[in-house]
Amino acid sequence: MKLCLQFCWNIENQESFTNSSELEHITEEYNKKSNSLYTILRSSRLAGSQRAPFLRRFLLRLNFNSFFEATARGVLNVVRPRPALPVLNPQ
């Protein structure tokens, strides 16, 4: 939450130029912390616990589109092929 507030403050208080180094720092910290949270939630100890079903649901919702899984694996830059569009024959 602190990083989100820092980001918002930087955006709201920017002048004619953006402080790219500060935004890069916020981005780097966010990526570290979100990957750490994802790794903790994916741990086998936590996944096997019957006392934390809400954490498993949170993990499922957090990673609904596999974004965090791909980021944690470091394959975020992999481009998935687009489905081919059908060819229409003009008549």
UniProtKB/TrEMBL annotation:
Keyword Transcription regulation: no
Subcellular location: Cytoplasm, Cytoskeleton, Microtubule organizing center
Keywords, alphabetical: Cytoplasm, Cytoskeleton, Microtubule
Regions that span the bilayer: none
Coiled coil: none
Keyword Cytoplasm: yes
GO cellular component: gamma-tubulin complex; microtubule; spindle pole
Family of the protein in this entry: Belongs to the TUBGCP family.
Biological function: Component of the gamma-tubulin ring complex (gTuRC) which mediates microtubule nucleation.
Protein name: Gamma-tubulin complex component
